[in-house]
Amino acid sequence: MRPTQATDHHEAGAPPAFRLVALARSPVRVRSGGPRGSDGSHGSCEWDAAWSGPSAGRPEPDRCGGPDGFEGVRAADRDVRAAVSRVLDQELAERLERSRAVDPVFADDLALRVAHFTQRGGKRVRSQLLWWAMRACGGGDDTSAVAALRLGAAVELLQTCALVQDDVMDRSPRRRGRPALHADIGAQYGAAVAPDRAGRFGEAAAVLAGDLALAWADDLVAGTALPAGTGHLVRRLWGDLRTEMVAGQYLDLQGQITGSRSLPRALRSACLKSALYSVERPLALGAALAGADGATTGALCSAGRRIGMAFQLRDDVGDVFSDDEGTGRPAGGDIREGKSTCLTALARARAEAAGDRLALTVLDRALGKHDLSPADLEEVRDILRRTGALATIEAKAGRLVAQGLRRFDAVPLDPAGAGPLRDLLVAAAGGTPAGPADPAGRHEGASANRPAGRPEGTPANRPAGRAQGSPATGATADPHPSTANAPAARPHASPPGGPTASPTTGPATRVTAPAPAPAPAPAPAAQHDTPLSLFASHSEDSRA
């Protein structure tokens, strides 16, 4: 995976320096009558020096403006997923046309697979988080709205890159109930070559497919008009997002090859891959587009990091305990690949502390065993229950969600986005934490109308009887300074003011949205929340 720099963003107020238009023909034109090689490609090309622009009569989409057919902010509010999908459809159609002009074999084998994988993608949770963060922070003009949809589409392409290459690294044959991309393209050529050669080709092609998705994502960001004053911060956040995604994946691989089984290492990888990539960075991008101040951005990032960690902890549980029907992937994939997740690392630490040699033997034998049988997996499940690791991880996930929602509720946000964003965060974490009822009569984290979907990988069917956490009540000082100066918490369900309507939660009441600061803070204020402190913040656990 080779991230590239997303540059040349155009900010509102400055005229765009160029327009990207759909190619009618490539500078390299393939002669349809030319001989074909053994791979089906054309044997000769000729330069078309006369090519000078788009085909006559075709409208030229303005890549420095909004997507064609943008229906407005309120329409996007009603169905963010559909609005992002429309941007993706438009962009991918153009990318496919350009790819076909480069070479039809490349377009059919690789580019088309990338487009289809992205279009039939998951719940678009990351792009929805980005959108609702922008709305909750007061964004809503056409420039910020179109930018949010385009950045959301870029995040979905980045997710395609991550998943396609993740399946290669995990040697997973299926994704979303279908053959994984590397397995699919390998099967296409499997009849002509030896199976091992076809498999290797499929893996190499999938790496290139991931690179292509990453390049297209960067193209989307680079061609997006950004609200005035946000360009530098958005570019930096986008760069951080890509780097952290790769770093988290590398730590997974490095842990497998070195046999690292430490809990701090597993937590670091979980923070990079899920807390930051899946939740915190999308929130920060949305806040940046709205011009949110540093305190607001820091509080949202702190909330998002906790909820993202909760998602990963529950995903660890789902990988071991959920079935293939619920997730689209075989149960126990992390065990087979020898990944040291937070769940297995905690079980090992508990077994070592108790001198439980049987538990250590079972874990050592199972981790990295590619032909793990159902009986072997059930032995691992028994160890995870018996050591208390399963109960601890599940309870901690519930507490992290409650902590994150408290931080979220302490921020004065625009109700047009606050309610839907809160509901989405709860849904993204995979459950509703126990907590005190707010003045509207809901328990903390409860939602009558929760958006469907969780970040991909969340288990659909968790073990029966699991607790979301039943923490004790009590008060203690907040050890995290990122929200020390935040206004007192108020439930988003019942803010003071006049009535309004929320597209997700129904009738609510209106508050005046705080005016955004002239310029966003250069960095989120939550960077001190380390993975280990999130996992071991017992002072907050007592209040969750």
What global shape is seen?
Answer: flat
By helix and strand content, what is the structural category?
Answer: mainly alpha
In N-to-C order, the SSE pattern is EEEHHHHHEEHHEHHHHHHHHHHEEHH
**Radius of gyration over all CA atoms, rounded:** 24 Å
| β-strand amount | under 5%
Average pLDDT over all residues: 74
The level of helicity is 40-55%
Number of helices: 19
Q: What is the topology, as strand order, of the major beta sheet?
A: 1-6
The end-to-end distance, rounded to whole angstroms, is 39 Å
> Biggest β-sheet: count, sense, barrel?
2 strands, parallel
Give the uncertain stretches in residue-range form.
Answer: 1-65, 433-528, 537-544
What is the total tally of β strands? 8
How does this structure look, described?
It is a single chain. Helices cover 54% and strands 4% of the residues. It is built from 19 helices and eight strands. Strand 7 and strand 8 form a beta hairpin. The radius of gyration is 24 Å and the shape is flat. The N terminus and C terminus are likely disordered.
Write the layout of secondary structure elements.
Layout: E1 10-11, E2 28-30, E3 45-47, H1 73-78, H2 80-102, H3 104-119, H4 125-136, H5 142-170, E4 174-175, E5 178-179, H6 181-188, H7 195-222, E6 225-226, H8 231-258, H9 263-289, H10 294-321, H11 324-327, H12 333-337, H13 342-354, H14 357-366, H15 374-386, H16 389-409, H17 415-429, E7 499-502, E8 506-509, H18 531-535, H19 538-541
Parallel strand pairs: 1-6
Antiparallel strand pairs: 2-3, 4-5, 7-8
